Amino acid sequence: MMGLILSNLDVFEHGLLVSLELSGFTFALASLLGVVLAVCRISPVIPLRMLSRTYVGTLRSVPLLVLLILFVFGLPEVGLVYSLFWTAVTAMSLYWAAFFCEVVRSGVRAVPKGQIEAGRAIGLTFGQVLRFVVFPQSLRSVVQPLASLLIAVTLNSSLAAAVGVTQELTGQTQLLDQQYAQPLVTFGAAAACYVALTLLIGQTAARLERRLVVQR
After folding, report:
1. Residue 187 in 3-state DSSP?
2. What is the dihedral of CA 212, 153, 106, 129, to 10 degrees?
3. Which of 92, 100, 116, 154 has the greatest number of C-beta atoms within 10 Å?
4. How would CATH label the architecture of 2-214?
5. For residues 31 and 22, is the Cβ–Cβ distance under 8 A?
6. Are 104 and 35 in contact (CB under 8 A)?
7. Residue ranges of the alpha helices (H) in 42-160?
8. Measuring CA to CA, which residue among 174, 171, 150 is closest to residue 160?
9. How many Cβ atoms are within 10 Å of 121's Cβ, its own excluded?
10. How far is CA 185 from CA 6, 9, 147, 162, 172, in A?
11. pTM over cut 0.90
């Protein structure tokens, strides 16, 4: 059992690295789009609010695996062909941006209205109020929700294996299982890797949250 794992450590390491890259790129892109969507959601411009609300409501209503399949098989039909890895990153980023938007919006709503009114009273524009007043304060209340979102992104990156991204951890584990027919051992090792990543993210978020509390 241990011999199987030790003799294939390089396979697990490669799969884990690709999973980290997949999750990292997805979270970074989803963060950028999510912030834009959140700004639109709280914007005084009604069309922007409606557009953002529609996007969030639609994407949150579609299973991630369905979206991945639509992108992998649909993009080539319209002439957009690039690697499965980046196709998965694109689909997952668009999906998780909707959830990131709601996390940011909840943090914004946690900022006392008096702070926003004070910013407006001293002549700050809408963008300046967000940049200098709202976002710095909301960051303290969204650390744990964002950590939970990152954990969800990391764990659900395994769905990429279902659409052909076999380089990531779950895909590599499936290939090992086909070779050795030892699902309990191979997938048990993969599960241990995911648990380790989850614990690491949780501990990092807790440490960051404590630091932000001290700085208040």
Report:
1. helix
2. 70
3. 100
4. Orthogonal Bundle (1.10)
5. no
6. yes
7. 46-59, 64-74, 84-109, 113-121, 126-129, 135-138, 143-156
8. 171
9. 9
10. 11, 13, 29, 20, 13
11. no
Burial degree of 35 (CB within 10 A; 0-12, 13-18, 19+): middle
Give the model confidence (pLDDT) of 146-181 as tens digits: 899 999 999 999 999 989 888 899 998 888 888 878
Long-range contacts of 177-181 (CB under 8 A, 24+ apart): 180/4
Tell me the one-letter amino acid at 21: E
- Tell me the pLDDT tens digit for each residue of 79-111: 888 889 999 999 999 999 999 999 988 877 767
Q: Tell me which residue of 36, 195, 6, 18 sits closest to 101, measured CA to CA.
A: 36
Residue type, 10: D
167 contact partners, CB below 8 Å, separation of at least 6: 14, 15, 18, 85
Burial class (CB in 10 A: 0-12, 13-18, 19+), 4: middle
